[in-house]
Specification:
By secondary structure, this protein is α+β, with helices and mostly antiparallel strands. The chain has helices spanning about 5-10, 15-25; strands spanning about 30, 35, 45-50, 55-60, 75-85. The longest helix is centred in the N-terminal third of the chain and has 9 residues, at about 15-25. Associates with stalled 50S ribosomal subunits. Binds to RqcH, 23S rRNA and the P-site tRNA. Does not require RqcH for association with 50S subunits.
């Protein structure tokens, strides 16, 4: 599944166009490597996303083509959230 689609369906980022913009600015890593919006994600991948001054890390647990709002959070696990973090 494409990264931008996963971020929208899982509701980590509410709009696919915003997910594409964030990825294309180099603020998302998949398993430690910079990712583009068209990058493919799979179960077990770790996403690291920089939102302003905070950095959030997720692990992908499930992939669905569509999901209900209340079920979206089951698609990932929040691993860590730090402030003022930068990518290594």
């Amino acid at each position: 599944m494409r990264l931008d689609k996963f971020l929208k369906i899982s509701r980590i980022i509410k709009r696919r166009s915003v997910a594409k913009e964030v990825a294309d600015k180099g603020r998302i890593q998949i398993n430690g490597k910079l990712a583009k919006s068209s990058s493919t994600v799979k179960v077990g991948d770790r996403l690291k996303i920089q939102f302003g001054n905070r950095c959030v890390e997720y692990e992908i647990r499930e992939l669905h083509e569509s999901t209900k709002k209340e079920d979206a959070s089951q698609m990932y696990t929040l691993l860590s959230e730090t402030k003022q973090a930068t990518f290594d």
